Amino acid sequence: MTAGRGGGAGAGLFSARARRLVSDLVLLAVAVVWLGPYVWMTITSLKTLPEITRAPAYPLPQAIQLGAYREVLQAVPVMRYFANTVFMATAIALLQIALALPAGYALAKLRFVGRGAAFVLVLSCLLIPAQVTFVPVFTMLGAAGLVNTFAALILPFGVSALGTFLVRQALLSVPDEIIEAARMDGAGELRIIYLILGPMLRPTLSALFLFSFVFHYNDYFWPLVMTTDDRVRTLPLAIALLREQGTGVRWHLVMAGNVILSLPVLLVFAAAQRQLLRAVTARV
């Protein structure tokens, strides 16, 4: 009987190890699929144009070439576009957080007629593609004379239905006694929202900031529609300019520009990996 139990335990341990091995292999395959385009993009940026267009193509450059990066920095005002992009994405993310906090607080903790309908309306906004509103928003901003301004790039995205939903769901797990105690101490609603509940929702707000920042950092269509002036153009547009210059597509320049574009975001995720994981898995 003892031998039977030992054999069963050994089989169970082997089965657990096999499942762990299969899981690791699947995760490794997914990682390779996701990292493959970045590796190919980086390798291509280090090749010369004849090496890229040669058939059959060599997987690795014969000699590492950094000339594409120097040419990109000289062809377009990369640093200006980069500063514009970071400013726009940061401003949108902070504005979304500032407005999502009171909106989520109202839907989670205040009692008023139509609260349920308001929450359903917020959820319905998640189902509407942003492209549906581009024409009327562009018309309004054009009539207001805001084309080629940072206001036109930032204000249309200041309110986030996803941010409101995330904050509302996080606030549902905050005890009402904390809010009542703050009111008894004389704290107003804004102080409760931003100084008491805000720090408690740091993981949720961190995730919202990162998701919003990355999305708008990579946004191409809206800056393309709203800007024609280099003073407010963003970095993704610089990559498009590289495609339009000269005859034919100079793939080594395009790939070098994409490496420059993606590197800051990759560094942010690498630096904030633990914080992001904690933000996604935490209840509050």
Automatic annotation (TrEMBL):
Keywords: Cell membrane, Membrane, Transmembrane, Transmembrane helix, Transport. InterPro entries: MetI-like, MetI-like_sf. One of its GO terms (biological process) is transmembrane transport. It is a multi-pass membrane protein. Its main location: membrane. GO terms for cellular component: plasma membrane. It comes from the Bacteria. Residues 82-272 form the ABC transmembrane type-1 domain. CDD domains: TM_PBP2. Pfam families: BPD_transp_1 (PF00528). It is found in: Cell membrane. The chain crosses the membrane at residues 21-40, 86-107, 119-144, 150-171, 192-217, 251-272. Belongs to the binding-protein-dependent transport system permease family. This is Sugar ABC transporter permease. The lineage of its organism: Bacteria, Pseudomonadati, Myxococcota, Polyangia, Polyangiales.
